[in-house]
Inverse folding.
């Protein structure tokens, strides 16, 4: 994959911009520069893809060589002296940019890429010149619906070939090609064939310009309004490292982008990209709901809700209490939860809440796994920690058979990964008292659920997920919760124990 | 039921076996199809994709990349007139104009199914016979403007009357 | 001193039925060279040494020493290797290889067997452009004959050396004349040149070691084997020995292909071989090496000899020996437009400077012809060309940049004049 | 009281009449001025600077930055491409845009909603400057008073064709030019030209 891995143990030392660099043998100058955070401008080179060497932007000067050479296909040799900052190199970069812009429509005002566009970045970096091009430009098709998640603008395309290589090398679908030649060349699929796979939005990420834009994010927001924080995708047990892009002042999440890591490389799947929607106002449970003895259901404050729950808990014997736990919460939350309910209150009826239709072993060979919970591993380890069986099995039916007086349920975070959720919720309605802790707003429609607590989303809390391989995914830098009333399990448990401590 | 008839089918399968990789056969296969059908139809590409495992994107790329392949219907006589340096110097431009005029006149009468189509071609590699044109696969040398009329008549005697 | 007009390549020219195997064998020492080599009179190393010693340089345009090229093939590598005859000859103005196919195809085949033997290639291809329909027929026929006579195939002449030769037809793309572009095309892909390194001699056709030689180059080899490097060196100049086919076209009495030793005086070629200019015409400019060569003014043509050095001295190139006479009746602006349009049409679209640059130049030339361009644009073309040069995977970008630079440099006046005229006339002058 | 120095001097002159004269003279001078002007005006010798607005209208220069309006394309569509640059430039954050994909492909992006919270607006005119397509301008309308309960959020429709605009104002930008091919803006002058169609043309 990356050039570095191609190299053997022996190393090569060369000079880049008067700086000694030692890299594994076989490393290209571009890859070496990237490791050293020396930035050489480029379009077509991508660490996750094969070398194309077509944008001719990453030109560098090698001592005693007549021509400038492209860094991406220049293997470092001992003692080689490379410069990416000489005036002649800068001049070459400027003209490389000019050539890229000759037929570019410059419709930045309506282009979603504006703000994170390499053409713009380089214009500020090596450009800031008055264009020499004063002839009519080549016009090409715009706003093509090329995939279920994608919109293609062939006019903006600079034919860097990244998307084509992605289709060939990563997804192996080979749906894209470059047709015609010369400046008539266009990217495209075979006539009326669309790109159909679960990794389309990666094309948007790797496209250095605005040729590919995401249909989901299209026109929603300008990127310079967005704030991004690192998180871990809760969509499946792979736990891709992601950046969540949101506009906190309006409490709205807009998109997810993959963050490079050994877990997911440079990519993530389209399903995962949808895992921000449930945290937005219109979809989430924004406040507690509780049903009074009179049967009237009303909105309440968190304190009221907790007090009510505590009261019910006091009335119930621990044998009549059951915990229904889905695998969408952090290790820290499980620890606190079980510590409190199992260790100190002695509740022993613990059931796992899983999607009955899921095929946990399924795997698409790239990233997406059949286990649609981020922390299955963490849950079973937390269970083992409190001396309960850790193996993963859907305990939902068993719970209904036991029909306990009080059920405390940690609901799944992603309703769209839980097709059976509505059915399951309606069945929970038959139980005497269910306290459902969830972020899913749809729960409101199930009036039989006596007690609803709004939870925080994964981007709004600290903690760790253990992915299928036991690799830790850190939620370190949370956004403020989308609604004031939202809590995470740790906070709820702390408050409950507080109340109980007083009332005992 | 294949869209290729027996002879062509055999030829295609021959090419697929002939080279080191299937993909190498794309150009010869397309030539073969075009020699029979005049142009490469979508159903041909589909067949190559589904039956013979030549990726349709690869095939389409090749068709659009090379000048010779046509993915639109063609006329009975395709004229490829060289407009490169030498031919230009020795009178390609007026000759091309002449042919255009004829085709326009013919189209006026016969509509889209006229006998001739004209393609200004980059280079035919016969500068010593300049100006040169290809009519289908036949090379016509010294095709200067004064000869155009009789040349065209030679191919389609009726249409020019 | 040997006779000053050797017959090294077009040896069967003028004979009845020149293409036939019989003619070749009877009149041109046909297939004696492979008998000599495969018979064991020469080892691979000796063969390569002989070719090196002959100083034979690639006739395709670059003029790279052929023997040296052969040595680049890693001999340790035991897997399949390929030899490709570049018969695409797409450089405008060139038609010498077509002549070889018409007159003496067997010599190419014999040359290929020798080259294949030298580099241990087991499979060869002749890649011919589609436009040469008739010539393709000749080649295929010749290959058949050679197979029948046992000069190709398994265990050639009982030497235990196998070499299969196949013909491959292009589909109309200039860029397939570039060796890696040709290889891509042979692999059934778009004829887009491959980024180097790795070079074809190490990783070419299907990632295997591959040598691509021009038709004329290969046709030289049998003669060199038969007559030896020393005799070969008697022809031509010190640095560029041997004879060369020149394709001469333009307003001449007898345009065509002529085989003369390198270093042959240009004026003599025009007067003796070509019978001089058409009546009433004189030289306005000269394109010495195909459309991509910088053109020469009549002054520069004075005392011009046809060899690599003399051309280099005039900052132009011999290229594939395609000489185009631009007579005084021609409008240079139009010719420049034709040239640029050609390259813009043929650019494979891979590298940005070439894709956009050729298009941009073409765009400006449109403006010059219809008078919408600004006076400054003529000089701008030179700047654009400057930044197109030496930046891309293959040489097409330079091939477009070089003539543009020379036109603007040497004939800026006439271009500016044309533009002014066109602007005044508000459209095409003619 | 060490270190304290007495600096006040006794009144030089304690003559009450002289002091009083000082005061009275000043007052009288002032009064005379007032009565002077009063007299001049009441006898109509000189015109008053103030006049009776709104009966007598007050006009400002075209470049006065008053109430916003959105220009239109030749085909009557709102010119705005919803690029958010005005919203970005706005220091008061009073511009709210919701962009959408236009049914026709000639116009790719357009504002589904375009709202200005006029109570927050500081009339800096940055939106006008930021706009790449001459879609928003600040007109010479200055009278924006209203009663409690009036709409203080100007909607797209209001901004594009309220009564005062007499059916809307066409942008000076030529339609088929979606972008400039050079950094030099061929309409640079036109965009700020005072003869650009403003309300006074209607």
């Amino acid at each position: 994959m990356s050039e570095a891995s191609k190299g053997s143990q022996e190393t090569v030392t060369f000079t880049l911009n008067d700086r000694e660099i030692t890299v594994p043998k076989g490393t290209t100058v571009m890859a070496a520069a990237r490791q050293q955070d020396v930035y050489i401008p480029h379009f077509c080179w991508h660490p996750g893809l094969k070398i194309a060497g077509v944008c001719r932007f990453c030109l560098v000067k090698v001592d005693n060589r007549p021509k400038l050479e492209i860094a991406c296909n220049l293997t470092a040799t001992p003692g080689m002296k490379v410069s990416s900052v000489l005036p002649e190199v800068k001049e070459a970069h400027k003209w490389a940019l000019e050539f890229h812009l000759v037929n570019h429509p410059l419709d930045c005002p309506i282009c979603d890429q504006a703000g994170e566009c390499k053409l713009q970045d380089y214009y500020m970096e090596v450009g800031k010149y008055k264009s020499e091009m004063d002839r009519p430009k080549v016009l090409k098709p715009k706003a093509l619906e090329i995939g279920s998640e994608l919109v293609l603008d062939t006019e903006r395309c600079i034919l860097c070939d990244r998307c084509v290589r992605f289709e060939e090398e990563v997804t192996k679908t080979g749906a894209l090609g470059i047709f015609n030649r010369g400046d008539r060349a266009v990217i495209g699929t075979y006539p009326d064939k669309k790109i159909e796979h679960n990794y389309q939005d990666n094309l948007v990420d790797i496209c250095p310009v605005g040729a590919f834009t995401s249909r989901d994010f299209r026109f929603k927001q300008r990127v310079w309004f967005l704030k991004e924080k690192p998180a871990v995708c809760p969509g499946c047990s792979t736990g891709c490292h992601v950046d969540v892009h949101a506009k906190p002042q309006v409490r709205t999440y807009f998109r997810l982008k993959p963050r490079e890591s050994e877990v997911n490389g440079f990519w993530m799947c389209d399903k995962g990209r949808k895992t921000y929607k449930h945290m937005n106002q219109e979809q989430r449970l924004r406040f507690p709901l509780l049903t009074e003895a009179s049967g009237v259901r009303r909105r309440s404050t968190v304190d009221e809700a907790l007090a009510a729950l505590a009261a019910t808990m006091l009335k119930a014997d621990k044998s009549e209490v059951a915990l229904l736990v889905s695998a969408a919460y952090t290790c820290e939350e499980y620890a606190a939860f079980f510590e409190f309910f199992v260790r100190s209150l002695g509740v022993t009826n613990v059931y796992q809440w899983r999607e009955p239709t899921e095929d946990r072993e399924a795997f698409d060979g790239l990233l997406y796994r059949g286990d649609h919970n981020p922390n299955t591993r963490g849950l079973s380890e937390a269970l083992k920690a409190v001396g309960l069986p850790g193996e993963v099995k859907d305990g939902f039916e068993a719970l209904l058979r036991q029909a306990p007086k009080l059920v405390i349920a940690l609901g799944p975070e992603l309703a769209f990964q839980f097709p059976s959720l509505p059915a399951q919720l309606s069945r929970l309605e038959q139980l005497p008292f269910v306290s459902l802790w969830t972020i899913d707003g749809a729960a409101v429609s199930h009036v039989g659920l006596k007690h609803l607590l709004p939870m925080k989303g994964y981007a709004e809390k600290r903690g760790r997920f253990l992915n299928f391989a036991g690799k830790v995914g850190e939620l370190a830098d949370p956004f403020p919760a989308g609604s004031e009333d939202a809590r995470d399990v740790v906070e709820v448990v702390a408050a409950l124990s507080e109340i109980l401590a007083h009332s005992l | 039921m294949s869209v290729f008839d027996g002879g062509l089918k055999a030829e295609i399968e021959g090419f697929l076996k002939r080279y080191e990789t299937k993909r190498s056969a794309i150009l010869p296969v397309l030539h073969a199809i075009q020699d029979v059908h005049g142009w490469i139809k979508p159903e041909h590409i589909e067949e190559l994709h589904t039956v013979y495992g030549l990726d349709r994107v690869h095939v389409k790329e090749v068709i659009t990349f090379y000048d010779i392949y046509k993915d639109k219907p063609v006329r009975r006589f395709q004229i490829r007139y060289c407009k490169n340096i030498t031919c230009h110097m020795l009178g390609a431009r007026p000759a091309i104009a002449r042919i255009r005029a004829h085709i326009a006149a013919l189209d006026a009468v016969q509509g889209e199914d006229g006998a001739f189509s004209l393609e200004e071609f980059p280079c035919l590699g016969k500068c010593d016979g300049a100006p040169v044109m290809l009519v289908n696969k036949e090379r016509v040398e010294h095709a200067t403007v004064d000869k155009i009329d009789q040349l065209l008549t030679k191919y389609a005697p009726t249409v020019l009357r | 001193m040997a006779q000053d007009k050797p017959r090294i390549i077009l040896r069967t020219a003028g004979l009845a039925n020149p293409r036939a195997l019989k003619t070749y064998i009877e009149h041109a020492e046909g297939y004696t060279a492979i008998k000599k080599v495969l018979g064991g009179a020469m080892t691979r190393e000796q063969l390569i040494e002989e070719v090196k010693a002959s100083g034979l340089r690639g006739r395709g345009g670059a003029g790279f020493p052929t023997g040296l090229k052969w040595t680049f093939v890693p001999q340790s590598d035991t897997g399949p290797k390929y030899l490709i005859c570049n018969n695409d000859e797409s450089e405008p103005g060139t038609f010498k290889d077509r002549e070889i196919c018409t007159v003496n195809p067997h010599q190419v085949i014999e040359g290929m067997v020798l080259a294949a033997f030298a580099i241990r290639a087991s499979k060869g291809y002749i890649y011919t452009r589609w436009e040469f329909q008739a010539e393709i027929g000749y080649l295929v026929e010749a290959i058949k004959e050679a197979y029948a006579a046992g000069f190709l195939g398994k265990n050639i002449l009982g030497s235990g050396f196998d070499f299969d030769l196949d013909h491959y037809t292009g589909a109309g793309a200039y860029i397939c004349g570039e060796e890696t572009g040709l290889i891509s095309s042979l692999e059934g892909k778009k004829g887009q040149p491959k980024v180097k390194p790795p070079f074809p001699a190490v990783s070419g056709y299907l990632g295997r070691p591959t040598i691509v030689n021009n038709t004329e180059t290969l046709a030289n080899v049998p003669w060199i084997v038969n007559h030896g490097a020393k005799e070969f060196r008697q022809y031509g100049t010190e640095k560029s020995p041997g004879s060369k086919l020149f394709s001469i076209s333009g307003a001449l009495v007898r345009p065509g292909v002529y085989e003369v030793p390198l270093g042959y005086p240009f004026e003599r070629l025009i007067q003796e071989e070509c019978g001089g200019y058409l009546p009433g015409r004189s030289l306005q400019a000269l394109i010495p090496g195909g459309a991509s060569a910088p053109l020469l003014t009549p002054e520069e043509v004075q005392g011009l000899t046809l060899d690599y050095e003399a051309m280099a001295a005039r900052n132009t190139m011999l290229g594939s020996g395609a000489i185009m006479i631009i007579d005084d009746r021609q409008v240079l602006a139009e010719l420049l437009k034709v040239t640029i349009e050609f390259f813009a049409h043929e650019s494979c679209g891979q590298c940005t400077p070439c894709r956009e640059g050729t298009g941009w130049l073409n765009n400006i030339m449109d403006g010059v012809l219809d008078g919408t361009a600004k006076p400054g644009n003529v000089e701008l073309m030179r700047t654009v060309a400057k930044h197109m040069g030496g930046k891309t995977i293959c040489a097409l970008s330079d091939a477009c940049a070089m003539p543009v630079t020379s036109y603007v440099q040497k004939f800026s006046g006439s271009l500016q004049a044309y533009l002014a005229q066109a602007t005044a006339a508000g459209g095409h002058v003619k | 009281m060490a270190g304290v120095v007495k600096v006040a001097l006794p009144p030089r002159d304690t003559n009450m009449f002289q002091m009083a004269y000082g005061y009275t003279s000043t007052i009288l001078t002032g009064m005379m001025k007032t009565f002077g002007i009063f007299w001049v005006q009441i006898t109509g010798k000189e015109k008053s600077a103030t006049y009776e607005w709104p009966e007598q209208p007050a006009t400002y220069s075209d470049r006065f930055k008053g109430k916003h309006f959105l220009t239109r394309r030749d085909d009557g569509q709102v010119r705005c491409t919803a690029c958010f640059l005005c919203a970005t430039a706005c220091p008061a954050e009073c511009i709210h845009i919701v962009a959408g994909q236009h049914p026709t492909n000639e116009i790719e992006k357009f504002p589904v909603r375009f709202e200005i919270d006029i109570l927050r607006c500081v009339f800096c005119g940055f939106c006008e400057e930021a706009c790449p397509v001459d879609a928003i301008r600040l007109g010479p309308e200055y009278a924006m008073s209203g009663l409690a309960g009036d709409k203080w959020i100007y909607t797209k429709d209001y901004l594009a064709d309220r009564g005062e605009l007499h059916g809307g104002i066409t942008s000076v930008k030529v339609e088929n030019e979606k972008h400039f091919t050079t950094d030099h803006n061929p309409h640079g002058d036109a965009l700020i030209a005072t003869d650009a169609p403003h309300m006074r043309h209607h």
Summary: Residues 68-175+188-196 of chain D form a domain with the Alpha-Beta Plaits fold (CATH 3.30.70.3270). Chains D and C do not touch (no CB pair under 8 Å).
